[in-house]
Amino acid sequence: MAKIETLIGFAVKAQKIIYGADRIFNNKNAKLIVICKSLADNSKKKIFDKVLPTQKIIESKNLLENIVFKTNCKVIAITDINFIKAILENFNENYTLLN
For 65-98, what is each residue's pLDDT tens digit? Predict the structure, then answer.
């Protein structure tokens, strides 16, 4: 398991994760949005249309549901700034910064 997956796992344990696109847009603390590669194009467009300039979006080439251990999970947001900094510092080939 790569370092980013481990950090996301820690964020899950610390309850610093928001699951689902609709809940992300209702929460002002969502600073880093992680989307799955299998997310539908319409859902990606919805996310890009509603994203704030202060929010970063990264795409995972791995299935997000395997990382957070929730079935059919395609979009999460991380709310803790320390987890976000660590994730952005440890990018690898399995993740792409989209904005």
Answer: 888 888 888 999 999 999 999 999 988 888 889 8
Domain over 3-97 is classified CATH 3.30.1330.30: yes
Q: Could you state, in order of their start, the residue ranges of all structural domains in the chain?
A: 3-97
The values of phi and psi at residue 83, to 5°, are: -65, -40
Compute the distance between CA of residue 37 and CA of residue 95 in angstroms, rounded to an integer.
10
Alpha helices in the chain (DSSP H): 3-13, 21-25, 41-50, 64-68, 81-89
Q: Which residue has the tokens 């995972």?
A: 60
What is the value of pTM for the model shown? 0.89
Which residues does residue 35 pair with via DSSP β-bridges, in sequence order? 59, 75
Q: Are 74 and 67 in contact (CB under 8 A)?
A: no
